[in-house]
Amino acid sequence: MKKLLCSILVLCLCMGMAACGGGDGQGSGTPAQSGAAAGGSSAVQSKELEAWTMGCIDPGAWNAAYGPVYDQLEALADALNYKIIYATRASASTDDTLAAVQNLIVSGADALVLGNDVLGCYMQVADICEEAKVYWTMYWAGVSEEDREALNNYKYYVSATYEDEEYAGYWLGKAAGEAGCKNLCLIGAPDGLDFTIRRNKGLDRACEEYGMTILAQERDITLTGSAAGGMDIVNRFLETYPQCDGIIIQGRTHSCLAGVVNGLSDAGKTEDIPIFAIDCNINQTEYFANKQEAGVIGGHHLGGMYNTILLTNIINGTPLTDEKPYLLNHYVELTTTEQCEQWAHHVWDNNAYTGEEILQYIKAYNPQATYEDLVALTESYSLEDIIARHG
């Protein structure tokens, strides 16, 4: 599998550092001679676009959740004429997250593409970026309607993407119900988060429809965040609830799944207790082939790319919309070994989109590009679409 290919710029996280301005970011790119968004044939001409610097929080070692997000952003950098700088965090705390944001701005970022790292502090991020005059976006956002209304009052807040988490939760439960499960044990993200609440709601609806009971839950991130923790959790589930006939992993799959799989294997329960998970994982092809995983809903890796399209248009002086979009970032459902193999080839070994494909959504390159084109792009995302475009 490919890793993040960029050179990570490790920035000193000194608390109290003042955030310096990154400029308004409004450019005046010269439109290129290109075809329509539906399929222009022009060669990539990134020289026509304004150069800019994107700032991101360093996701750490490549994993199947964050890796494809940044692989896709890196793959578009030459065509859209930006470079990426990264800031590390000493921890996931609010203070360290905000320090990383400040350091990206100090280091010259013109715009920030942030993920769910900032879910607990995005209003503070809004204040920091507003003062510094630096555009910013969020993916995997899950922002409440009240907070979205508040964010819309900030000039330099551009957009966010979200997932239909209630559907994802329901899909897991439906898959378990159709597999004949009745007694489930659940591993998930901490309660109280917006996306957790919505995933719970969907799963509860499926449990009611299929007559399933959730016997136990584990949401402690110190356990769900590692394979060793996953094994500890599943061993406790098996000892305490021998009637368990299905496991739902509602988050942190890339961290804990290996331990859950090994725990079931050691107990001789692989064939008796299927696993259904949100989020892709690096070993899923092997797990599906060995019947160690029965279904995964994930692949929601393009929120950063959608936000980057909006940012690139703004920086080139050709915004696609005057609104602050809140775009749905679709999931992909994988239920067979063949689908997992196709996913690994088309998304992990390559990318869902090429630079030339995405240039068609940049008005300075393609004057016919519209916001409606971008919305259509988000709605077309699927494994089948990727295969159809790239063969």
TrEMBL record:
- Signal peptide range equals 1-21
Classify the source by domain of life. Answer: Bacteria
Q: Which InterPro entries match?
A: Peripla_BP_I, SBP_2_dom
Residues annotated as domain Periplasmic binding protein: 69-293
Q: Please name the Gene3D superfamilies in this protein's record.
A: 3.40.50.2300
Keywords per UniProt: Signal
Q: Which Pfam families match?
A: Peripla_BP_4
What name goes with this protein? Substrate-binding domain-containing protein
